[in-house]
Amino acid sequence: MMSKYKIFVDGAVGTTGLRIFDRLASAEDVELLSLPKELRKDLNARVAKVAEADLTFLCLPDEASKELVAHAPANARICDTSTVHRVNPDWTYGFAELSGQFEKIQNANRVAVPGCHATGYIALVRPLIEKGALSAGYPLSCHSLTGYSGGGKSMIAEYQNQDREQKFNAPRVYGLALKHKHLPEMQALTGSNQPPIFTPVVADYYSGMLVTVPVPVSALSQEVNSAEKIANLFSEYYQNSKLITVHPACSLPEDGMLAANAFSCKDSLEIFVYGNETQLLLCARFDNLGKGASGAAIQCMNIMLGREEIAGLDV
Predict the structure, then answer these.
(1) Residue 193: what pLDDT?
(2) Residue 250 annotated in active site
(3) For a 10 Å CB count at each end of the chain, is N or C smaller?
(4) What is the Cα–Cα distance from 110 to 125, expressed in whole angstroms?
(5) What domains, with CATH codes, occur in the chain?
(6) pLDDT tens, residue by residue, 244-256
(7) Quick one: residue 207, left, alpha or beta (phi over 0 = left, psi -120 to 50 = alpha)?
(8) What's the per-residue H, E or C state across the chain?
(9) 202: number of Cβ within 10 Å
């Protein structure tokens, strides 16, 4: 009889945790550990489950995540979906497609799953800075459109309320103080000298994300100063990725528009490069609940446990 991986999802009632739990429930090589309702907030009971598990997902608020990690066994393998450990040098950042990151995740006990907006931004900017196409000092901006599921259960309830206020009918810009919680990782994991000016927008659809970064051609090195050359750079950088697709430069959809919900319920990510002789627009499209959350978490789990990297994922 095949032995099964014991997996504990701490916070399995939230949006990300529930989706991870549901995805793994049908996996033949996984045994999901759980606690009775009355013990779900009992720290000692949760720490005991972490010790028993081959891997634990933390799908908790930041402070609750910090508390559990402080009491968890040092050798326990943990994937944290909260914000709190993403730029902690003692943790490994769970973006397997970045140079050298797959091997780091493979050998890590502590992996921080990337934020959804950050995933798209880092996918677009990291290769440019790493390969010398763009200066680390260049001031960037980023616009990111997300479905309302990114706001968790309370926001989902607001949008799905039949008697909701009229404001929910239109896209809404947030993060207006320019201190969004994803900014530290957006700077650190791209190698930028400063975070971008970041404009997140939530709109009236359930899930899907479209992240765009405008770049003047004059900001790029002479070697990669066109849409075609940037698309080629991305293609080479992600050539071994099973989840990231890079489209040929200036590949337009039939109607000339990118729909942010096109990858809803998928775990892959696609990159587009548009523009003209003087300006370029870099675009990353994926699901905020997929490659932006639960899909990325399961990908990290697969790598840490030695499973097939995309096992249980919808690509």
Answers:
(1) 98
(2) no
(3) N
(4) 25
(5) 5-113+293-305 (3.40.50.720), 116-286 (3.30.360.10)
(6) 999 999 999 999 9
(7) beta
(8) CCCCEEEEEECCCCHHHHHHHHHHCCCCCEEEECCCHHHCCCHHHHHHHHHHCCEEEECCCHHHHHHHHHHCCCCCCEEECCCCCCCCCCCEECCCCCCCHHHHHHCCCEEECCCHHHHHHHHHHHHHHHCCCECCCCCCEEEEEEEHHHHHHHHHHHHHCCCCCHHHHCCEECCCCCCCCCHHHHHHCCCCCCCCEEEEEEECCCCCEEEEEEEEHHHECHHHCCHHHHHHHHHHHCCCCCCEEECCCCCCCCCCCCCCCCCCCCCCEEEEEEECCCEEEEEEEECCCHHHHHHHHHHHHHHHHCCCCCCCCCC
(9) 22
> Which of 116, 142, 283, 300 is the catalytic position?
116
Per-residue confidence (pLDDT) for residue 12, from 0 to 100: 84
Q: Which of the four pLDDT bands, split at 50, 70 and 90, describes residue 1?
A: low
**pLDDT per position as a tens digit, 265-312:** 999 999 999 999 999 999 999 999 999 999 999 999 999 999 999 999
